[in-house]
Amino acid sequence: MSELHTAQAWLPSPAAGVVEASIINGVEWLRLIVETTGACIIALGIAFAVRGFIQTLRSGEHADFVAVRLTFARYLSLALEFQLGADILSTAIAPSWDQIGKLGAIAVIRTALNFFLQHEIRETEQGARTAPNP
User: Fold this and answer.
1) Could you tell me if residue 9 is inside a domain?
2) What is the structure's pLDDT at 16?
3) How many CB atoms within 10 Å of residue 75?
4) Does the first or last residue of the chain, that is N or C, have fewer Cβ atoms within 10 Å of its Cβ?
5) What angle do CA 67, 73, 76 make, to 5 degrees?
6) What is the count of structural domains for the chain?
7) How far is it, in rounded angstroms, from Cα 14 to Cα 58?
8) Which residues span the domain enclosing 35?
9) DSSP assignment letter at 35
10) What is the spatial distance between Cα 106 and Cα 39, in angstroms, rounded to a whole number?
11) Is there a domain that residue 77 lies in?
């Protein structure tokens, strides 16, 4: 019985709010990590797109701009998925319906952007496959 009493003294009760605060803190850190990852993916996409753009300008092959756009679009699409994940984490701990509504609207906008971005990538890739070779 004394072991149970010692364990109870060591573990805070859920009513104390310590467990809830720890979970909220952990989710906030995870959300920050996911958002930062999304931002880093966008930065990588920008770096690769700028490099491709400069190479395309040097080569004089302006048709290669489509490849640069597709490369950047892929990075943006992946980053949008990470940002949406961060939004979902935020709704897990949102304290008010107003905040949940705002995050929901942002999630819908990001999902729509990603949908149309993926659609454009598919169309462009299909067009490139069906185009006759010179």
Assistant:
1) no
2) 61
3) 18
4) C
5) 150
6) 1
7) 64
8) 21-130
9) H
10) 16
11) yes
Q: What is the pLDDT along the chain (134 residues), one digit of tens a residue?
A: 455 555 555 656 666 677 778 888 899 999 999 999 999 999 999 999 999 999 988 888 776 788 888 899 999 999 999 998 988 888 877 667 888 888 888 888 988 988 988 888 888 888 767 766 55
H or E segment to which residue 132 belongs: none
Question: For residue 13, what pLDDT is reported?
Answer: 64
> By the 8 A CB rule, do 36 and 79 touch?
no
Q: DSSP assignment, residue 85?
A: H
Residue type, 92: A
**Is residue 15, in this structure, part of any structural domain at all?**
no
Cα separation, 73 vs 46, in Å, equals 10
Burial 29-56 (b: 16+ CB within 10 A, else e): eebeebbebbeebbeebeeebeebbeeb
Q: Return the beta strands (E) in 13-88 as ranges.
A: none
Q: Using CA atoms, how far apart are residues 120 and 112, in angstroms rounded to an integer?
A: 12
Residue 16, in any domain of the structure: no
* DSSP string over 99-126: HHHHHHHHHHHHHHHHHHHHHHHHHHHH
What would the two tokens of residue 126 be?
């299909």
Distance CA 36, CA 80 (A): 12
